[in-house]
Amino acid sequence: MPKNLQQGLFDRIVDEENIYDAYKQSLKGKGKYKNNAMKFALDETYNLRELRRSLIDETYQFDGYEEFPVFEPKERIINAPFYKDKIVQLAINNILKELYNSTFIYDSYACIDDKGTHKCVDRIQHLMRKAKWKYGDGTYVIKGDIKKFFYSIDRDVLKILLPKKIKCKKTLRLLFKIIDSADIIDLLGLPLGNTLSQICANIYMNELDQFCKRKLGLKYYVRYMDDFFIFVESKDEADRVLKLVREFVEEKLHLKLNKDKTKAFPLAQGLNAIGYKIYVTHRLLRNDSKKNIKRKIKAMPHLILEGKLTVEKAEQILNSWKGHAEHANSHNFIQGLISEHDFLYLVKKGNKTVFRIDVSKLEKEGEDYDIVQEQKVAYV
After folding, report:
1. Sign of dihedral through CA atoms 303, 309, 274, 74?
2. Strand spans (E) along 54-112
3. Averaged pLDDT, 3-7
4. How does DSSP assign 179-198, residue by residue?
5. CA separation for the pair 66, 34 (Å, rounded)
6. Residue 163: is the preceding peptide bond cis (ω within 30°)?
7. pLDDT tens-digit series, residues 87-133
8. Please, which pLDDT band fits residue 282 given cuts at 50, 70 and 90?
9. Coil, strand or helix: which one is 280?
10. CA angle, 287 then 330 then 122, to 5°
11. Do residues 144 and 272 make contact, with C-beta atoms less than 8 angstroms apart?
């Protein structure tokens, strides 16, 4: 890695090893089973060589997007690039994150290596404690949310921000080609399915981070993508800071704060953030997280018995949720789930406990689920 990260930026993007690494990344999860991925893999050596050649001689063309809905954690429309374009974006992202990640503030946590939701929650609670120690019981929280963030990003603003850091003309032309591809979707925004949308969103919101930390001198500030949290000494200070932040977001970034989700309130109320209700002294699971896992568990016996869900997949869902739950005070809730559902139990695996499903006890709960569903239909 050259000391000057600008040196040979485009060459590092199109480096044969980087392109191959991006290809391997694209095969993770279920991606390798998609039709266009399997077709590409039939002659991967030739296809990767041709893709790399098109990037080098700048004949590469973006193929467009395929659209589909997702329903977790909320319903959204995803516009995902076609397979070869995904490889290109992964190759670019591998290099851009080396250039940009060190320039982001310490307290930016989304889509950055070795960060993520749980570290963000830890940091939020740490800053809550520091703020209370410094400011006392009068401490106020500003919770901010950008309205329809990805759909509202001004691509012209983004194209002004990128050359501030990226000096390589070839790299900029390639980036602008991908950014401009969103013109076929809408006049504003970045496609949620683009790998590059994540780092571009951080580059965009880094302007707010720098404004809050450098210009306003806010010590207790954390951001997770389009959500930001600020801890200040009083209600008056919260009102003043929020006014300045709103003006910056609207005038410089051409975005708007979500009126319903952006508010200032006393620290003692606790903070709903990143899937938890966070207090200075402890954390709780949010009610929607509890409701969602209860709903899924109730449906599992029926789905497994009908062959619509495997036991392995059900256990994966349960233990993924358990990993999230264990970052809060959730012991009693987890024990309550086990008491309520006979087919659930915990076993020791290494230094942790994991959910397991007793298949022999599924039938009774599956029957109960069917009866409830029939009653609902009859009622309707």
Report:
1. negative
2. 65-70, 76-81
3. 62
4. HHGGGGT-SS---TT-HHHH
5. 13
6. no
7. 999 999 999 999 999 999 999 999 999 999 999 999 999 999 999 99
8. very high
9. coil
10. 90
11. no
How many degrees, rounded to 5, is the angle at CA 221 between CA 129 and CA 152?
Answer: 140
Query: If you write DSSP's letter for every residue of 289-356 in order, what string do you get?
Result: HHHHHHHHHHHHHHHHHTTSS-HHHHHHHHHHHHHHHTTSS-HHHHHHHHHH-TTEEEEEETTEEEEE
Backbone Cα Rg of the chain = 24
At 15, list the tokens.
């480096």
Which is more confidently placed, 378 or 86?
A: 86
Helix (H) or strand (E) holding 112: none
Number of Cβ within 10 Å of residue 73's Cβ equals 10
- The phi, psi pair for 255, rounded to 5°, reads -120, 170
Position 220 pLDDT exceeds 50: yes
User: How large a percentage of the chain has pLDDT more than 70?
Assistant: 92
Residues whose CB falls within 8 Å of the CB of residue 50, separated by 6 or more in sequence, listed in order: none
pTM: 0.88
pLDDT digits (tens, 9 = 90+) for 21-54: 999 999 887 766 778 888 999 999 999 999 999 9
